[in-house]
Structures
1.
Amino acid sequence: MLEENGEQTGGYENNMSRFLHIVVVDDNMTDLMLVEEVFATFNDQVTIKTYQSGQAALDAMRTPKAVLPDVLLLDINMPNMSGFDVLKVMKANERLKLIPVVTLTASVLPEDLVQAYSLYASSYLVKSVGFASFLQQVKGFLAFWKLNRLLDWPIPSSTRP
C-alpha cells in the first residue's frame, strides 16, 4: 500500500482510522441482540459479525477468503462446542492462532478464568448486567483494542470505511 507521500507501507496503516473488525460468538440470542445494540452505538468505529455457535464461527473463519477479525469475543458456556473448545481449535490452527480471543462470559468461577488463560485467551471479561454498564464495558474494550490492535495492523479489505 502506498502512502500519500509515495512510501510503501507494506499493507499496514499507521493510524486508527480504519474500523475494528470484531466477531462475537454466543449461543444466547438475547445476549447477541444486546451486543449488536451496544456495538451499533459505535458503528463509526467497528464492524461486527455474530455467530450463535463456535462451530459456525470456526467454519466462517476457515474459508479461504475469509476476512479474519481483529479480535474475537467468545462466550465460554455454550452447548455442543464450548468456548474452551473453540479456543483449542483456534490455537491449533496456523491461520487462526494469532487472533486475540477475549472471553465474554457470565462465569465468575476461578477455574474458568484459569482454563481460559491456560488456553491463551487474551482477556477474560465478565458480562456486565444491564445496558448502561455493558455500554461502559464495551467502551473500555474498544478503547483498548483500537489502540493496541489497529496500530501497524494489516487492513482487511472488507473492513475499510
2.
Amino acid sequence: MASESDAAKDGFPNGVDLTLHPTAQTLAARSLEFLKEVQNLTPGKELEKRLNRNYGPGNEYYEDFCKYIKQGLEEGWVATANIEGPTYRRGKISLPVAENLYMSLTAVYFDSQEEFSGQYHKHPYGEINCVVPIDPTFELEGLPVGENWQGAGWTSLGPGTHHYPRSRGGKGVAFFFLPSGRIAYDAKPGEPQPLSI
C-alpha cells in the first residue's frame, strides 16, 4: 500500500486523505456549500461574470478558498505533483463523488513572472476556476486567448472549450471544479472552439 508521502509525490491521484488533513477537510466542506449554490449553472462566460460579480474578492467563499489553499501549500497537500518541475505542479484534492455533487476539486500551482503555458487540454463539461494569487500580481488567462487575464477572482470555461492554461505575474494557484472530473488531453491547438466560449 502506498504511503501518504508517496501519494503526495503523485499529486494524490485519489484525492487528499481528508482525515489526515483537517484544512483539506474544511476546504472540501466549504466547497460543497459553494457548489450547492451554483450547481445548476452552466460553466462559461456568463457564469464567469456572475462569479466575479457575486463571489469575487471580499466574498466569504472566495476568501475562505484562498485561505485554505494557501494553508494547504504550507501544509504540503496542495498541488504536490511536479508537472514541469516545482514551478508547475498539480494535485487532486477530491474526486467527483456524491458528497461533492460529482465535482472534482483540483489545484494547480504556477510560479512564473513571464507568460507560462501549461498542458493543453479540453473541458468536456466545462470548468469553474477560482484564481488564488500568492503574489498580488499573479494572473491566470481565461478565454478568449489573449483577451481575458484574471487576477483575484474567477474564470469559467464552457463545455468543450480547450486551451493552454497560462499564467503570469508570479506565484498563484488555480483551484478548479470539474463536472464529473472530466478533463481531456487529446485536444489540439487550432481546433475550433465551441460557441459557449
3.
Amino acid sequence: MDGTWLSIQIFNYVLINKFLGKGALAIVYRGYLQEDKTFQMAIKTIKIATILQNQRMVAQIRREIIILQKLDHPNIVKIFDVARTNNYLYIVLEYCVNIDLNYYMAIRKSIDLANLKLFF
C-alpha cells in the first residue's frame, strides 16, 4: 500500500489511511465496520510476501492470533476478525483511544509506581 490511497474496503471493514503504528511485520491503520462508521477499530496489515518464505514468522503470527482469540481482559486489545487477500493478511483489533505505555514512556522518560498501575 502506498501513501496515495484514502480508504480500502476489506470484506466487512473499511481501512482508512490513518497510520496508528508499525511493528517488525505489520503496519496498523485505523478502520471501521462498513455498516457502522462509529465502530472504530485498528487493522493490522501484514504483507503476505514478507512472511511467506519464513515459516517462523507464519507460526508467530498464528500464535498471536490464537492467543488474542483466547484472551479476555480489559487491558488487552480484543481481536475481532482475521481476513486475507492475495497480498495482505488483516488482523482486525479493538481500537484503543487512550495512549499506550510505549507512547507514555517516550514522552515522560520515566514512570512512578502509581502511574504504572494505570496501564495494568
